[in-house]
Amino acid sequence: MDATENLRIAKSDRDTWLMGDCYNDVTGRWNFDTLLLDSCLGDERGEFAWGGSEFTEDAYNIRFNAHEGASDQPILRAELRDSAGRFHEKDKNLSERIKNTTERAQQSERGPNGHYDYLTAILLLHRIKG
């Protein structure tokens, strides 16, 4: 993800948070931010689904690698349950829909033009000022 450092996840029984330091190119400072992944990522019949919610409730072995592969991508992995009740290893590249714009991590939505437009009003982001 652009202009982020110390990217990681924090988990509880019901929630998974993405957190890290986001660079603000206006102020030149780093700000600690969090994004509740369960507010924008769900589990639909054993597949990660953007626009869903609460994937953590049915997922097992949730892991995150902030810098995976030669292309240095942030990959979330978990075992998700399919419609037959079996668990399968799945992954999701978080940079598909989450990026740092100016000073905070944001989740994007596909606009009417078919492109991803980044949210200006951050309803999904719980900001912690450190």
UniProtKB/TrEMBL annotation:
It holds the Pfam family CVNH. Transmembrane segments: none annotated. Residues 91-102 have a biased composition (Basic and acidic residues). Residues 91-113 are annotated as: Disordered. Residues 10-107 form the Cyanovirin-N domain. It comes from the Eukaryota. This is Cyanovirin-N domain-containing protein. It comes from Penicillium antarcticum.
